[in-house]
């Protein structure tokens, strides 16, 4: 492992700790941690401040993931090294040291990382996410199927030996969304039960 790789990985984590939602909230004199879900992500920013905040936060959080991966390719890092960097930038977003580990939930940053890492694998994630939406009527539950398709594509393509750090980070993202997943499932089950009465 080279000194350059270590520096690249450290940079990846610290880049992830740039919380777009926090800065958008500060610009509007709003601490998003004290409103609604308290999450420093695009969804909460949009719910509290508005659509422009959602858009800015999504672009900002997605860009840091995308740029870190592209930097790795520019530095001629190995695919495994880039996958580690992608995982670290998401970890930085989920657990920013300067906010006592209370960050976002990682979806936009994950999108940026996976789009730059391998567009074809990213396409599998998008398809797996979009197809179930009309049936599930839940972005949260559809996202789970998107992750399953992404992981399945990694395994099928033989990329698991180099891409397993991204698979690991998916599990962490799902854990961060555990309450949203339970709530979405219970809401869907309640609606289904109500329709049969």
TrEMBL record:
Pathway: Lipid metabolism; phospholipid metabolism. GO terms for molecular function: acyl-phosphate glycerol-3-phosphate acyltransferase activity. It is a multi-pass membrane protein. GO terms for cellular component: plasma membrane. Keywords: Acyltransferase, Cell membrane, Lipid biosynthesis, Lipid metabolism, Membrane, Phospholipid biosynthesis, Phospholipid metabolism, Transferase, Transmembrane, Transmembrane helix. InterPro entries: G3P_acylTferase_PlsY. Its main location: membrane. It is an enzyme of class 2 (transferase). The chain crosses the membrane at residues 6-25, 53-74, 80-99, 106-133, 145-175. It is found in: Cell membrane. Pfam families: G3P_acyltransf. It comes from the Bacteria. One of its GO terms (biological process) is phospholipid biosynthetic process. Probably interacts with PlsX. This is Glycerol-3-phosphate acyltransferase. It comes from Viridibacillus arvi.
């Amino acid at each position: 492992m080279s000194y350059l790789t270590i520096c690249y990985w450290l940079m990846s984590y610290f880049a992830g700790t740039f919380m777009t939602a926090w800065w958008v909230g500060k610009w509007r004199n709003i601490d998003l941690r004290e409103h609604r879900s308290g999450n420093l992500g695009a969804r909460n920013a949009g719910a509290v401040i508005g659509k422009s905040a959602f858009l800015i936060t999504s672009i900002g959080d997605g860009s840091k993931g995308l740029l870190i991966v592209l930097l790795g390719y520019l530095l001629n890092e190995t695919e495994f090294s880039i996958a580690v960097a992608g995982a670290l930038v998401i970890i930085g977003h989920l657990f920013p040291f300067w906010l006592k580990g209370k960050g976002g939930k990682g979806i936009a940053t994950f999108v940026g990382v996976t789009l730059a890492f391998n567009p074809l694998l990213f396409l599998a994630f998008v398809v797996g996410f979009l197809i179930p939406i009309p049936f599930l009527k839940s972005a949260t539950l559809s996202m789970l199927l998107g992750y399953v398709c992404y992981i399945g594509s990694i395994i099928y393509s033989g990329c698991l030996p180099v891409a397993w750090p991204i698979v690991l980070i998916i599990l962490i993202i799902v854990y961060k969304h555990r309450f949203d997943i339970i709530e979405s499932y219970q809401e869907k089950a309640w609606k289904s039960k109500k329709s049969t009465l």
